[in-house]
From TrEMBL:
Species: Marchantia polymorpha subsp. ruderalis
Single GO term (MF): iron ion binding
Protein name (Swiss-Prot/TrEMBL): Cytochrome P450
Matches recorded under SUPFAM superfamilies: Cytochrome P450
Signal peptide residues on this chain, from the entry's feature table: 1-25
Annotated positions binding heme: 424
Domain of life: Eukaryota
Length: 477
């Protein structure tokens, strides 16, 4: 009895001493004048509720005005440095060894801890190279016709009907992403593919719910859907391994991951491949669909820009024999459309409004150019939209003005696909899909919005409130 009491007192003393040391260290850290000014928000939750799924500018601008373009906050359970300057953004993007991607537990549980943006930083370059190998121009140039087939199928099915643009564009880009990632050519009518779709939708809807793992709760249902989907993916991986052993090479992300060996000569584990596949699917799908939605909306509101796009695309159409498919070389001629479709649209509503990566500091360091101290264990959020909409870098930034990109932006002021070691491995595929979509949309169809502009929602990507309902009608050529 006395021994147990003594042990309890000893453990209590150790815990009290540890807490005291922790508090002392935290006070000394927070009192360091090199840490940017800012607000810690409420106890425990910090400023997470204010940060939430809201317009990033509404959160950032009052704080920038009060504390400057680099300020501290407390988000998602961690002290954080918020960055809205090109100099600091370039530093963060260029220092892979100092940062490790750190996402909320809900996201890493649903997608997996080993997806590309969150994997071991020493393993990241190798895995990124493997994934990117099937998404580079040398491979994509042979897939233009297949992408055309998906896009024409979607446009034809929407002809003359009112559609919810955001929803339908997501379905279209999901089909394209699933082909390039898994090698599945048609998601309709197969029970296996439906399992994959159900898993994706369940995981997407669960990222911002309470993680209560009990029957009847949304989180529980999503984890069950993930288990069923992963069982299917394991069977698909086994099938691809057998094909690879027989010398069959498949130019898909799954094929590349199954066929590669790491620096030790070892093949990737099934669970590692699954995390990488799901992370690639999430990165390749919603982002492209969201961008297309904003492009269509911007063009419908700026008829001069629309006419210039139509003129460029009609010139390409007329240079080809009737019925001839687009080629890779055709898409390289779409320079004005590239400025409109990708650059101008993404500067207004960057799909990833806040952090292109959620860096997690591995050791304390001082940024020499600014003298800012970033303590170990703090997150650094890159406020991409704030940097893109900075009037010092882009005069009249809210204007839909493609001509601003006739001169390349200054380094560090524009990075819709991230930058440096963090650059999106699927950026070339996204650009290609968007350009092919805009070619067939603008040369074959007219469209009109079916509801007034009612603002923007962030769930978490920015989209027109209401999903942007439109009606397409085929042109008489």
């Amino acid at each position: 009895m006395e021994a147990s009491i003594l042990l309890s007192l000893l453990l209590g003393a150790v815990l009290l001493l540890s807490l005291s040391v922790f508090v002392h260290r935290q006070k000394s850290i927070f009192g360091d004048p090199r840490i940017p000014k800012g607000s810690d928000g409420w106890p425990l939750v910090g400023e997470t509720l204010a940060f939430g799924n809201v317009d990033p500018m509404k959160f950032a601008l009052p704080r920038i005005k009060k504390f400057g373009r680099v300020f501290k906050s407390h988000l998602l359970g961690t002290p954080s440095i918020m960055v809205a300057t090109p100099e600091m953004a370039k530093f963060v993007y260029g220092e892979r060894n100092l940062f490790r991607a750190s996402y909320p537990r809900t996201i890493t549980t649903l997608i997996g801890k080993g997806f590309l943006s969150s994997c071991d930083p020493h393993r990241h370059p190798f895995l990124k190279k493997v994934i990117q190998s099937v998404l580079l121009p040398d491979t994509l140039r042979h897939e233009v016709g297949r992408i055309e087939g998906y896009i024409n199928g979607g446009l034809d099915s929407w002809d003359g009907k009112p559609i919810l643009a955001a929803k339908e564009f997501k379905e279209l880009t999901l089909n394209i992403a699933v082909y390039f990632i898994f090698g599945l050519t048609d998601l309709r009518g197969t029970a296996e593919a439906q399992v994959l779709i159900d898993m994706y939708r369940a995981l997407s809807s669960a990222m911002y719910v309470m993680p209560i793992n009990l029957p009847g709760f949304h989180w529980y249902k999503s984890l069950q859907a993930r288990k069923v989907g992963c069982d299917y993916l394991k069977r698909l991986i086994l099938e691809r391994r057998r094909e690879a052993d027989q010398g069959v090479k498949q130019n898909t992300v799954l094929g590349a991951l199954v066929g590669c060996t790491d620096e030790k000569g070892e093949k990737l584990r099934d669970d590692e491949i699954i995390d990488l596949l799901l992370g690639t699917l999430f990165g390749a799908h919603d982002t492209t669909a969201t961008t297309i939605t904003w492009i269509v909306k911007h063009l419908s509101e700026h008829h001069d820009v629309l006419q210039a796009v139509v003129a460029e695309q009609e010139e390409i159409r007329k240079s080809k024999a009737p019925g001839d498919p687009l080629t890779w070389e055709d898409t390289r001629r779409m320079q004005y459309s590239l400025q409109v479709d990708i650059l101008a649209s993404l500067i207004l509503w960057n799909v990833v409004s806040w952090l292109v990566a959620g860096p997690f500091v591995l050791c304390p360091f001082v940024v020499k150019a600014s003298g800012v101290l970033i303590p170990k264990g703090w997150r650094v959020f890159l406020m991409t939209t704030c940097i893109h909409l900075d009037a010092e870098n882009f005069p009249n930034p809210l204007a839909f003005d493609p001509s601003r990109f006739q001169v390349p932006p200054k380094p560090g002021t524009y990075f819709p696909f991230a930058s440096g070691t963090h650059v999106c491995p699927g950026s070339e595929l996204a650009k290609l899909v968007i350009l092919v979509f805009m070619h067939h949309l603008t040369t074959k169809f007219r469209w009109q919005s079916l509801q007034p502009d009612t603002g923007t929602v962030f769930k978490p990507f920015p989209l027109p409130n209401g999903g942007y309902p439109i009606k397409l009608e085929r042109k008489v050529l």
